[in-house]
Amino acid sequence: MFASPVTGNEVENVINKLKGKSSAGFDEIPEVLVKRCSHYISKPLTHVFNLSFRFGIFPDLMKKAKISPLFKKGNKQDIQNYRPTAVLSVFTKILEKIMYDRLLSFLKKFNILTDEQNGFRNKKSTETALSHFY
Fold first, then answer.
1. Is residue 3 in a domain?
2. Which end of the chain is more exposed for a tag (fewer CB within 10 A), N or C?
3. Largest CA-CA distance found in the chain, in angstroms, rounded
4. Is residue 23 assigned to a domain?
5. What are the start-end ranges of the E strands in the chain?
6. Number of CB atoms found within 10 A of residue 25's CB
7. Distance, CA of 128 to CA of 134 (rounded, Å)
8. Measured between alpha carbons, how far is 124 from 93 in angstroms, rounded to an integer?
9. Beta strands 82-88 and 65-71, pairing class
């Protein structure tokens, strides 16, 4: 699969579609700040993302996440009643979305996904899967 080069407009569009949360990953940079600066940072991000696609390397710093325990239910003193949650860097989310779009486009272009594939597809869900099964 060939990943076409990333454009500055594409990076800005992905940034603008972020929710603008104030939470941040390990780098302590919140989405809301990145959204406010998108016009200024889209060009350097485009360069980094294109290098990542060209060489097939995902930057090590983008592999880090802030992990926090999230209580499920039951006794709060029992460690088994917690699950880990990972908050990724906003830059990781942007690169992930760009790659996701390219991968999905490739799969559609070459008709690789069957109609029975319901996960991670527009207008498809567990409900549509159950409906087909039934």
1. no
2. C
3. 52
4. yes
5. 65-71, 82-88
6. 20
7. 10
8. 22
9. antiparallel
Residues constituting the chain:
134
**pLDDT, position 115:** 78
d(CA 101, CA 47): 18
**Structural domain containing residue 107:** 8-63+89-120
Residue 96 lies in a domain: yes
Task: Please identify which residue in the block is written with the tokens 């567990």.
Answer: 126
- Answer positive or negative: Cα dihedral of 76, 82, 88, 93: negative
pLDDT tens digits in sequence order for the chain, 134 residues long: 678 999 999 999 999 999 999 999 999 999 999 999 999 999 999 999 999 999 999 999 999 999 999 999 999 999 999 999 999 999 999 999 999 999 988 988 998 888 778 777 788 887 887 887 78
- Quote the tokens at residue 118: 């319901």
Residue 33, amino acid: L
pLDDT for 130:
81
Single pTM value for the model: 0.84
- Contacts of residue 60, defined as CB under 8 A and 6 or more positions apart, other chains included, come to none
- The answer to whether residue 37 is domain-embedded is yes
Please tell me the distance from the alpha carbon of residue 82 to that of residue 11, in angstroms, as a whole number: 36
